[in-house]
Amino acid sequence: MPILKGDFISLNYTAKVKETNEIFDTTFEEIAKKEQLYKEGELYGPKLIVVGEGWVLKPLDETLLTMKLRKAQTVEIPPEKAFGPRDPDKVKRVPLKHLTSKGKTPVIGMRIDYNGKMATVRAIGAGRVLLDFNPPLAGKTLIYEAVVDKKIKTKKAKIQSLIHRRIPLADQTKFVIALKQKVLTINMPEDTFYIEGIQISKRGIAMDIQRLIEGDLQIDFVETFKSSPKESKTKKKSKT
């Protein structure tokens, strides 16, 4: 079964730098732990990709169209098609006190915000810090070892996958989805009501559904608050 533009797929991958063989990203929890990339609270497993939407680097996105289900494929991406060449003009020395005065203690390899721009600390010495404002993977050739785990086919499954993408920590099976004519109702589980940024997430879900599945839908998010049952004040009299 061919993979086409617009298809919803689940993708597993491990990505590394060709020059050093260093793994920098993976969907596999055991690899993340082994390579000291593991982040507490982050969910691991196949990632939702809508083919052609630019959710992965363009060369990988294009290669998906040639891949077969559950068959591993290696994709090599040169710097100019990944994060661009490394620009020496983006490496600057700044006084150490500019960082320490803001409560920042630089460490080599650390990512740090300097005047609203992210940089990597490359060296520290003589009261100055060498900051590299290039993207961390600039100038690197990237290798992706990827497998398409499955294609997501039904409309309900696609909606659930888009919900999971925007609210990853919630159990997607707890969302009750009903589609009647042109009205899509999404009943929210109670444990999502107070998630930080939930209103932004709901707006994103609605836009994703209208753009990627069906544009002429009214989308209603329903939050139902259930009261706790009150204890009865009437006590049964014991028989004597």
What do these coordinates show?
Helix 4 packs antiparallel against helix 5 (198-212). The chain has three domains: 1-85 and 138-153, Chitinase A, domain 3 (Roll), CATH 3.10.50.40; 88-132, Thrombin, subunit H (Beta Barrel), CATH 2.40.10; 154-226, Alpha-Beta Plaits. It is built from five helices and twelve strands. The chain is globular. It has helices spanning 29-34, 58-63, 96-100, 155-166, 198-212; strands at 8-17, 23-26, 47-50, 73-77, 91-95, 111-114, 117-125, 128-132, 142-152, 176-180, 183-188, 218-223. The longest helix is centred in the C-terminal third of the chain and has 15 residues, at 198-212. The protein has 240 residues and is of the alpha+beta class. The strands form three sheets. Strands 1, 2, 3, 4 and 9 form a five-stranded antiparallel β-sheet that branches. Strands 5-8-7-6 form a four-stranded antiparallel β-sheet. Helices cover 18% and strands 31% of the residues.
First and last CA, distance: 76 Å
Overall mean pLDDT:
93
The major sheet is characterized as: 5 strands, antiparallel
User: Remind me, CATH topology of the largest domain?
Assistant: Chitinase A, domain 3
Strand elements, count = 12
Shape: globular
The helix-strand sequence is EEHEHEEHEEEEHEEHE
Helix fraction bin: 10-25%
CATH class of the largest domain: Alpha Beta
Number of helices: 5
Low-confidence spans: pLDDT under 50, at least 5 residues? Answer: 235-240
Question: Which secondary-structure class do the elements indicate?
Answer: alpha+beta
Tally of discrete structural domains? 3
